[in-house]
Design goal:
This protein is mostly helical. Helices cover 72% and strands 2% of the residues. A two-stranded antiparallel ribbon has the order 1-2.
């Protein structure tokens, strides 16, 4: 196994990990505040990819059209999630967790059928954005510029989210809603609006992640099934509700996936689940998570 192959696989692992982190960060945010296991997160991701495909089909491949499509995916998914939370989801916060799971699973089925009705069942390809379509010479290999962009944008998203959560008023409100929503309401803040904003933000991240993933994979129905499993693995091993745990979990999953393929071929998925079992046995709350506390 030569150095060039190892470097290529390491970069592939980082690109995959950073794309997965953007998606999983939304799932982490939603679970951390709303305490809802959102099975529809993968469907939001899939819609983001299809929205980018449609924007490129409508407006062509101009210099900024790709980024307009990425922004549109985030905005549309955020607006859709806001409406879902306001009209439907908030009625289930005080219901059994099984009802919440069934509701989000129903969203998966509905969105999947809508995708097939609107875009059909065939695969679609999305080109790299203007300026990032070539390869960069890294000394020993030539590597796609777009994947290097993904490697760079992931940490920026993580730092931006961490800054907002830790150093802004909205972030303090979100952290307070996570710990004690009754006290937050007693202080005069609109907890329902906070929950709607968090759900919309998480869905927007899923949509943006789906749009960014579109150039490196086929856009097709069913693409949500794999990504939701990977995102759940990330947040479980990293720690439910932990942003940096999701970042670490995405890195681990990216490297295990790509180097596992080299080591054991198609059996790399077994390595992923074995890794998750080992982490859960050692730290049931995840690598950077904390033991669950009673919430009010």
């Amino acid at each position: 196994m030569n150095t060039a192959l190892l470097l290529t696989q390491a970069l592939n692992s980082l690109a995959l990990a950073m794309n997965l982190f953007i998606i999983a960060a939304g799932l982490t945010l939603i679970f951390g505040v709303l305490r809802i296991v959102n099975f529809a997160h993968g469907a939001f991701y899939m819609l983001g990819a299809y929205l980018l495909y449609s924007v490129l089909g409508w407006f062509g491949s101009g210099p900024f059209v790709f980024w307009i499509g990425v922004a549109a995916a985030g905005l549309v998914l955020g607006a859709l999630a806001w409406a879902i939370e306001r009209l439907l989801l908030r009625r289930l916060y005080d219901r059994d967790h099984l009802m919440q799971l069934l509701f989000t699973f129903a969203l998966v089925l509905i969105i999947g059928d809508l995708v097939r009705i609107i875009w059909g069942t065939e695969q679609h390809a999305v080109s790299y954005p203007a300026g990032l379509g070539g390869a960069v010479d890294l000394g020993g290999i030539r590597y796609p510029a777009y994947l290097l962009f993904l490697i760079g944008v992931g940490p920026l998203v993580a730092l931006a989210l961490a800054f907002v959560i830790d150093h802004t008023r909205w972030g303090r409100i979100v952290r307070a809603a996570r710990l004690d929503r009754e006290m937050l309401a007693a202080l005069g803040l609109n907890v329902k609006a906070v929950y709607a904003a968090v759900f919309a933000t998480g869905a927007a991240l899923a949509g943006i992640g789906g749009a960014l993933a579109a150039p490196r994979m086929a856009v097709q129905p069913g693409m949500d099934a794999t990504i939701i499993i990977e995102c759940f693995v990330i947040v479980i091993i990293g720690g439910l509700g932990s942003l940096w745990g999701s970042f670490l979990g995405a890195l681990i999953l990216g490297f295990v996936t790509n180097f596992g393929i080299l080591a054991v071929g198609k059996w790399e998925v077994v390595l992923i689940y074995l890794m998750m079992i080992v982490v859960l046995l050692a730290r049931p709350w995840g690598l950077l998570g904390r033991p669950e506390q009673v919430r009010h």
